[in-house]
Amino acid sequence: NAGVMQNPRHLVRRRGQEARLRCSPMKGHSHVYWYRQLPEEGLKFMVYLQKENIIDESGMPKERFSAEFPKEGPSILRIQQVVRGDSAAYFCASSPERGGQNEQFFGPGTRLTVL
Amino acid sequence: SQKIEQNSEALNIQEGKTATLTCNYTNYSPAYLQWYRQDPGRGPVFLLLIRENEKEKRKERLKVTFDTTLKQSLFHITASQPADSATYLCALKAAGNKLTFGGGTRVLVKP
Q1: What is the full DSSP assignment across chain B?
Q2: Which of A48, B37, B47, B72 counts the most CB atoms within 10 A of its CB?
Q3: pLDDT tens sequence for chain A (115 residues)
């Protein structure tokens, strides 16, 4: 039973380019969460999705960032026109039940570096 | 405003001793609180969940307490081992089902 998978593990982009981060939740999990972690800081919630629906995007910047979780395929976090401040580790987590009552299973993260 | 605070200073402890970490929160009324472990370069791993009506929860060498009056949770690692060295995060379920994490406390267990 594979865990949460994220790819790529490392992504380098130049300012102004687009970054696409992928997350495949654990088998049987239909809830996906994206978090951002800056160096030496805690995890910050970005967005919570269920299949084909965005449930809560209150932590996601309104511009340049978007997320989706299609009926088929992985969840995608897209950052358009990246800036240096977007450099961070982006973690995806999944859970089988609604909300945060149950544990969340985290992926290994994607480390984005913006040059 | 809502805050979750953990001691940002690293905790250095001798192998075999008990490590105690603190998680304080303000302006929350959480139904439960979770603790996670994070190793460098990896995603967090769930350790324990404690509900508001539970005073204490144990799992092997780990013990968590939850005092809703003090708005505090304590996380204990008994008989600590060098393999316990990691960053430990507490998390609360905030409004809308998302988890809000504290900044984490780094623990270093010396042999």
Answers
A1: --EEEE--S-EEEETTSPEEEEEEEES---SEEEEEEE-TTS--EEEEEEETT-SEEEETTEEEEEETTTTEEEEEE-S--GGG-EEEEEEEE-GGG-EEE---EEEEEE-
A2: A48
A3: 579 999 999 999 999 999 999 999 999 888 999 999 987 778 999 999 998 899 999 999 999 999 999 989 999 999 999 999 999 999 999 988 655 567 889 999 999 999 9
**Which residue among A4, A56, A109 sits closest to B98, beta carbon to beta carbon?**
A56
A49 contacts chain B (CB < 8 A)? no
Q: Do B97 and A48 touch (CB under 8 A)?
A: yes
Phi, psi of B69 (to 5 degrees): -75, -45
